[in-house]
Amino acid sequence: MGKRWLALAWVCLLALLGGIHSREEATQASTWEEGLPEQNRYVALTFDDGPQPETTARLLDGLRQRGASATFFLVGERAAAYPELVRRMKAEGHQVGSHTWSHVRLQGASARTLLDETGRAQRVLTQILGEGSYWLRPPYGLLDEEERALVEVPLIKWSVDPRDWESRDTAKVVEAVMGAVKENSIVLLHDIYPTSVEAALQIVDALTLQGYRFVTVEELLALNGVEPQPGVLYRTGTG
């Protein structure tokens, strides 16, 4: 009888210790979870008007060092002049798109001009990178509904515009983006200005600390379950 009571006492003691241990583990897990960073938030940096040898190369160096992806909307005649930079963009995981052949305003242009400008840019990108869907950013972000119907790829605008081309001031560009950016933003910048390149890298550093991750426009739309359609204009990662 004494041995049975002793065995029962050991069982109760082990159960008690096990419960205490489980509660300690739960408390430790809860404390650890509270210390975790917020879930990743995604944003797309986009760059127009390039490539430009010195500034674009420096930007690519900085993005590679930071593990950040971006989208480049290239002017066709510039892409034709610097094909090695275009190949580097794709090789390093960036998305390459078109900004027309010569940066012509497409809104109000004739159908012939629109098709020529977009077609020439598409052809040169295909020659450099091979077959693919090279999405279009219309110069100035403007295109009427009838004109959109002529375009056979998705159209990308933006939701954050710091007007970097106007100020040419790194601090002002950083401040403007940081004050407006949010999850799923598409940010407009230009990689032909040294001030914009420096601003872009400062923005990546600052937003990375806030839990943001930098993806291409195509990746941003996919993360939100958006299936991009030809001739449709997208301003953010959700549409």
What does this molecule look like?
The protein contains ten helices and seven strands. The protein has helices at residues 2-34, 53-66, 76-81, 83-91, 111-129, 145-148, 164-167, 170-180, 194-209, 217-223, and strands at 41-48, 71-74, 95-98, 155-156, 186-190, 212-214, 233-234. With 239 residues, it is of the alpha/beta class. It folds into two domains: 1-34; 41-234, Glycoside hydrolase/deacetylase (TIM Barrel). Strands 1, 2, 3, 5 and 6 form a five-stranded parallel beta sheet that branches. It is globular, with a radius of gyration of 26 Å. The model is unreliable at 1-37 (pLDDT under 50).
Helices and strands in order:
Blueprint: H1 2-34, E1 41-48, H2 53-66, E2 71-74, H3 76-81, H4 83-91, E3 95-98, H5 111-129, H6 145-148, E4 155-156, H7 164-167, H8 170-180, E5 186-190, H9 194-209, E6 212-214, H10 217-223, E7 233-234
Parallel strand pairs: 1-2, 1-5, 1-6, 2-3, 4-7
Helix pairs in contact: 2-9, 8-9
Write a concise synopsis of the structure shown:
With 239 residues, the protein is an alpha/beta fold. The protein has helices at 2-34, 53-66, 76-81, 83-91, 111-129, 145-148, 164-167, 170-180, 194-209, 217-223; strands at 41-48, 71-74, 95-98, 155-156, 186-190, 212-214, 233-234.
| Beta strand count | 7
Order of helices and strands: HEHEHHEHHEHHEHEHE
Which geometry do the CA atoms define?
globular
Q: Would you give the CATH topology of the largest domain?
A: TIM Barrel
Please indicate the count of domains. 2
- The CATH architecture classification of the largest domain is Alpha-Beta Barrel
N-end to C-end Cα span: 76 Å
Arithmetic mean of pLDDT: 88
Query: What structural class do helix, strand and pairing data support?
Result: alpha/beta
CATH superfamily of the largest domain: Glycoside hydrolase/deacetylase
What's the number of helices? 10
